[in-house]
Amino acid sequence: MAASGSGGSRADNGYGSQQPRRRKGPGALATAYLVIYNVVMTAGWLVIAVGLVRAYLAKGSYHSLYYSIEKPLKFFQTGALLEECLLIAKYLLGIVPSSVVLTAFQVMSRVFLTWAVTHSVKEVQTEDSVLLFVVAWTITEIIRYSFYTFSLLNHLPYLIKWARYTLFIVLYPMGVSGELLTIYAALPFVRQSGLYSISLPNKYNFSFDYYTFLILVMISYIPIFPQLYFHMLHQRRKVLSHTEEHKKSE
Q1: Which residues are listed as membrane-spanning (predicted)?
Q2: Domains in the chain: how many in total?
């Protein structure tokens, strides 16, 4: 599923400092790399946010703003794969919990939505639903990467922590709605063009219907969305209540 963090916040990815159970932190070199990576990603999503605002002020309309941020969106959303491939490798080594893998696939689904739907089906790029998930993604990622950066530096402001574990309540459904509406809008164009579909007969004796595949992707939101959403609600109660208890004890 693309949201979260595809319009909502994703779960802690193994190098944040908010897990109750202490884990061995990364070394100095790994920490430096992660800080640089998260700073770059924060800056990248800020560029996208500024691009949206500037385009809106110039046009005086929120319609078709996708074109103003298309290139940086593709670059920085695809760049998140570097982070998620590392997480999957850590999971296979038993370093991070299985919930992280679920969120890793969430990022991959975002990349899928960016390239295999919005980029490939040009007709949907003017849909307002695209702006819906782009805005949700942008706000989410600015907060998320800022959260990771300050956590790695051991100077996490409470406001960023609060935003990380609160704004997803609105941003996640907002992003998911935009994603589903965009896929739905793409369906008739995919069916008409036969995009990415493979028909029989062929030498591989294999067929693939991309139209049906997109419908299955939409159906997959039904079991996955509640899991991720309630996981983040659980994380919110655990992290923010722990913070409040810590403040009272000081």
Answers
A1: 31-55, 100-118, 130-153, 165-190, 210-230
A2: 1
